[in-house]
UniProtKB/TrEMBL annotation:
Lineage: superkingdom: Bacteria
Feature: compositional bias, Polar residues: 447-456
Sequence ranges assigned to domain ATP-grasp in this UniProt record: 163-370
Keywords: ATP-binding, Nucleotide-binding
Biased composition (Basic residues): 459-469
Pfam families in the cross-refs: CPSase_L_D2 (PF02786)
Organism: Streptomyces milbemycinicus
Protein name (database record): ATP-grasp domain-containing protein
């Protein structure tokens, strides 16, 4: 992680919504949708000193993280969101906080580059993890931001993959076609269905699998034909990509790396992603998580991608995501020029390795359904019990996403760290079971954790579950 922050503590700004919105015409809804995932800002480096979030968080969360990860004096500023849901707009309205960040002299890390974030602090010299790049173009954008915008396009990334692939055995690039109308899309979908082919329909810009749909011939028939499906899927240009057939535990791999301020590429690692349909759910990284052979293929190709990005002026974190086919070849499917979900796992791994020695396995589970809506105190109690049960298995549990526990569809994110994959599996089962038991408990007792006016205490209703365990 030395190439990332120079080993120094850092300022973390959770601008997930801002980053995504720049590819959706600045949509306030898109900005707000990134609010919960912005909790991951706590892990933008191994050692945060100032943490800025769009949503309010309860003190229990950072106390627990500080206890386990031995953070010192981490200052947390929650509910820093403007009227449009953006954290940068919110920061502009808090000059004292901005001045504190400027005076700290620490590297400033965001989820990803945006025009607003690049000009927010305007340091005279680029700082590790915060510099806008060496060149400002006629459009006023730093070169690194311009490269970000270019290759966050899945069409541009695909062209780069095709250029690099011939020099990399073990890499296969799926065919892709860009279509600009619903009529074109319907025609191509109908032709693929007639040939019995499954395809992937992608928005040119998307995140975490959103905007991506796997379409089978059967789904086209169920939708009432290609035209009807195209009307549902297409709003402007789309990409139709060849579906890569494959399955198994190594189906979805990712390679993360850093391009430093001088343009050198520093590989961080390869992980196995958990993908539900097309949506990213989490990752496992660490010794043995990915066998040496596919890991080497992913690292060589991913480093070549980083070299190409660096040559165009990109600086910062990036990843390349792959799908493994039935022959064991890796198909690159997208580049993320920003911090990533897997980056969180690597940051936690680096911190625990420094504190405990060795290199642990880390698994992140970003969206675990809760059985009931929980206010902060009840969530702290629930996660505390899950953490104690995980410790008995030799596993460290860290809460990662904690602001969605009172949503209509409540969920929580956690990270698990252990020395063996078996311990990770056992701990994941414990957490999932505890969440499911929470829902059953409230159903059985007729008590809702979302209704404090009932006079019932979520803590009190938890006691029977503790005795069973």
């Amino acid at each position: 992680m030395t190439a990332w922050t120079g080993g120094a503590p850092a300022v973390h700004i959770g601008n997930v919504g801002d980053f995504n919105a720049q590819f959706a015409d600045g949509s306030p809804a898109v900005r707000r949708a990134g609010g919960h995932y912005a909790c991951l800002a706590a892990f933008y480096s191994p050692d945060p000193r100032i943490l800025v979030l769009p949503r309010q968080v309860d003190d229990f969360w950072v106390r627990e993280l500080s206890r386990v990860l031995e953070w010192r004096d981490t200052a947390v500023y929650g509910a820093v969101a403007g009227e449009d849901g953006g954290v940068v707009e919110g920061l502009r309205s808090r000059p004292a906080l901005l001045e504190r960040i400027r005076r700290s002299g620490l590297p400033v890390i965001t989820w990803g580059r945006t025009p607003e974030s690049e000009g927010l602090l305007a340091p005279p010299e680029p700082t590790a993890g915060s510099g806008p790049g060496a060149v400002v173009g006629p459009d006023g954008l730093g070169q690194a931001l311009r490269v970000t915008r270019r290759y966050e396009s899945k069409a541009a990334a695909h062209r780069l993959f095709r250029t690099l692939a011939p020099a990399h055995p073990g890499i296969v690039v799926p065919a892709q076609e860009r279509l600009t109308s619903r009529r074109e899309t319907a025609r191509v979908l109908a032709a693929r269905a007639a040939a019995g082919a499954t395809v992937v329909v992608k928005a040119e810009y998307g995140v975490g699998g959103y905007g991506t749909t796997v379409v089978t011939p059967g789904q086209i028939a169920e939708a009432g034909g290609a035209r009807a499906l195209a009307r549902r899927l297409v709003r402007g240009a789309v990409l139709i990509e060849e579906y890569v057939h494959g399955s198994g535990p190594l189906r979805n791999l990712t390679f993360d790396a850093v391009v430093d301020d001088k343009g050198a590429v520093h590989p961080v690692g390869v992980g196995v992603m958990d993908i539900d349909g097309t949506s990213y759910q989490g990752v496992t990284v660490g010794p043995g998580a990915v066998p040496d052979a596919p890991a080497a293929v992913a690292e060589r190709f991913g480093a070549a991608v980083g070299g190409a990005l660096a040559a165009e002026g990109y600086r910062g974190w990036y990843d390349v995501d792959f799908v493994m086919d039935r022959a064991g070849r890796l198909a690159p499917v997208e580049i993320n020029l920003r911090l990533t979900g897997p980056a969180v796992a690597f940051m936690i791994q680096a911190r625990l390795a420094r504190l405990q020695g060795g290199l642990p396995l880390v698994r992140t589970l970003d969206r675990l359904p809760l059985g009931a809506r929980l206010p902060a105190a009840a969530l702290a109690d629930h996660l505390g019990e899950a953490s104690r049960r995980c410790r008995s298995l030799g596993v460290t549990l860290l809460p990662t996403v904690v602001t969605a526990a009172f949503e209509p569809d409540p969920y929580v994110g956690v990270a698990l760290a252990a020395r063996t994959s078996g311990a990770l599996d056992a701990a994941e089962a414990v957490v999932r079971s505890a969440n499911e038991a929470l829902g059953r408990m409230f159903l059985d007792t007729g008590v809702s954790a979302s209704d404090p006016s009932s006079g019932a205490s979520p803590r009190r209703t938890r006691r029977p579950r503790r005795r069973r365990s």
